[in-house]
Write a structure and sequence with these properties.
The chain is of the alpha/beta class. It has one domain: Alkaline Phosphatase, subunit A (3-Layer(aba) Sandwich), CATH 3.40.720. The strands form 3 sheets. The protein has a 10-stranded mixed beta sheet with strand order 6-5-4-3-7-1-8-11-2-12, with helices on both faces. Strands 13-14-15-16 form a 4-stranded antiparallel beta sheet, covered by helices on one side. It has a two-stranded antiparallel sheet with strand order 9-10. Strand 5 and strand 6 form a beta hairpin. Helix 6 runs parallel beside helix 8. The N and C termini lie far apart (61 Å). About 1% of the residues have low confidence. InterPro entries: Alkaline_phosphatase_core_sf, Sulfatase, Sulfatase_CS, Sulfatase_N. This is Sulfatase. Belongs to the sulfatase family. Keywords: Calcium, Hydrolase, Metal-binding.
């Protein structure tokens, strides 16, 4: 019996800039399987994260809410694991600051996986969750294989499966793929459709050579790394992130590219499995990153919190987004429309033909008409982004970044300055434009932010979130304060 709804394979990477694919014009990097998805379907040139850091972006993707409405405003530092259940190796790791009990940061919020489950989908996760309580399957997931804390070493990952923590000495990218492949084998015998989330930790640091397979490191041994700028380190670069110039720069890029190419090879294994099982034409394949990444762009190494104050350059807020559905969607299409992760919930439901009443106050709008050929939508499109008190409003022509109350603000004329090198915010000529964009920005966040979780009122530092605002602790103690 043929399924009424398509399967979904959703692949999510960690800290991959939109620029870090061969099909996006980067001639240094090798991504034959990402290029394969793009050649078989759509590549979005202007797809934006909701926040340039992992946990808030992932929460917005799942819920359709902005960070100032779901309350995840920085990467999750605590509440992932239960203190009593931790292994000794985790307790002593300074990366992790434990709570007495796990926190489900999205508790009580509707996610698109909840809706898929309601509509007969079997939902499975293989890979990074990083939204709290890694021990417990949540939000419609029937199968749950994840990373305990969120981040991990590539060759010593803490894995959660069946409520137990174990350490995996194999390369974590391969481990995640192997589990996803086993899920696909299971799904071949069922009549209902599946949704499979494959969430890689790649290409997040560490980028040391011993963290990645030698064959991929050697692939970039003699690379000139000409596709990314070679600039002095930005004066606002945070000291805790790896950064550098000269040979250090090449070493960092070598590890970053190796992580992507190793991941790309495993994406190929997933695509090959769909074909071998005879379900490629029954499966929508999507590829996305949680947030963008500066790898020397503007002299910055890191995402939005690679600097303080946080940065909102396109390299940090643009993410890759590829979609293919062989036999149903055209191939080799480049979509230039501006879309955001907070549009994804409504879009996915439209793509699979699910009609459901969604919660009030979601800012997103479906862009599923792209797949009917409307890749150049007429009319103004505006996207917004946030990270703590740093907020962005962006049109095709202009970008305004507001850092209330301390500044400095930024204004870029993108049609004339696409690299965002000339900050016009202090030029009196643009005062009226800035005022107009500020009002538009303020009204939008007033409409969609929850006052109890408004990130502009929190002390977001970029060093992690300890608990959920207004629910689990006094809001003044929500964020980690750097010693």
């Amino acid at each position: 019996m043929k399924q009424e709804k398509p399967n979904i394979l959703f692949i999510l990477t960690d800290d991959q800039g939109a620029w870090a694919m061969r099909c996006a014009g980067n001639t240094d990097i090798h991504t034959p399987n990402l290029d394969r998805i793009a050649s078989q379907g759509y590549r979005f040139e202007n797809f934006f994260c909701a926040s340039p850091v992992c946990s808030p972006a992932r929460a917005s993707l799942l819920t359709g809410r902005i960070p100032s409405a779901h309350g995840v405003q920085d990467w999750i530092r605590s509440g992932n694991l239960d203190r009593d259940g931790l292994k000794k190796e985790i307790r002593e790791d300074p990366y992790y600051l434990c709570e007495e009990k796990p926190i489900q940061y999205l508790e009580g919020m509707l996610t698109y996986t909840d809706v898929l489950k309601e509509n007969g989908y079997t939902c499975a996760l293989s890979g990074k969750w990083h939204l709290g309580d890694s021990m417990t399957p949540q939000h419609g997931f029937d199968k749950w294989f994840t990373i305990g804390r969120g981040g991990c070493y590539y060759n010593k990952a803490d894995i959660v499966e069946n409520g137990e923590i174990s350490f995996e000495n194999r390369y974590i990218t391969n481990v995640i793929t192997d589990k996803a492949l086993s899920y696909l084998e299971e799904f071949r015998t069922q009549d209902n459709p599946f949704y499979l989330s494959v969430h890689y930790t790649a290409p997040h640091s560490p980028w040391e050579e011993d963290q990645h397979p030698g064959e991929y490191i050697e692939m970039y041994r003699d690379c000139g790394f000409t596709a990314t700028p070679d600039l002095p380190v930005h004066p606002n670069q945070i000291p805790s992130a790896p950064s550098g110039t000269g040979e250090v720069r090449k070493s960092l890029l070598r590890g970053y590219y190796a992580a992507i190419t190793a991941m790309d090879a495993d994406v190929g294994r997933l695509l090959d499995k769909l074909e071998a099982l005879g379900i490629a034409e029954d499966t929508i394949v999507m590829f996305m990153a949680d947030n963008g990444m500066n790898m020397g762009h503007h002299g910055i190494w890191g995402k939005g919190n690679g600097t303080f104050p946080f940065n909102m350059y396109d390299t940090a807020v643009k993410v890759p987004f590829l979609v293919s559905w062989p036999g149903h969607y055209p191939s080799g299409v480049v979509c230039r429309r501006m879309c955001s992760q907070y549009d994804f919930f409504q879009t996915l439901l439209d793509m699979v033909g699910i009609r459901r009443q969604l919660p009030d106050g979601l800012p997103g709008r479906s862009f599923a008409d792209v797949f009917d050929g409307n890749t150049e939508k007429a009319g103004a499109v505006v996207v917004y982004d946030e990270y703590g008190p740093t907020r962005m409003i962006r049109t095709e022509e202009w970008k305004y970044i507001c850092r209330s109350p301390y500044g400095p603000d930024e204004l870029y004329h993108l049609s004339e300055d696409p690299e965002e090198n000339n900050n016009l915010s202090a030029d009196p000529e643009y005062a009226t434009l800035i005022n107009r964009m500020y009002i538009q920005l303020t009204r939008w966040f007033y409409t969609y932010a929850d006052p109890a979780m408004d990130a502009s009122r929190e002390g977001v530092t970029g060093y992690g979130q300890l608990c959920r605002p207004g629910i689990y602790a006094d809001r003044r103690n929500v964020f980690y304060k750097q010693p």
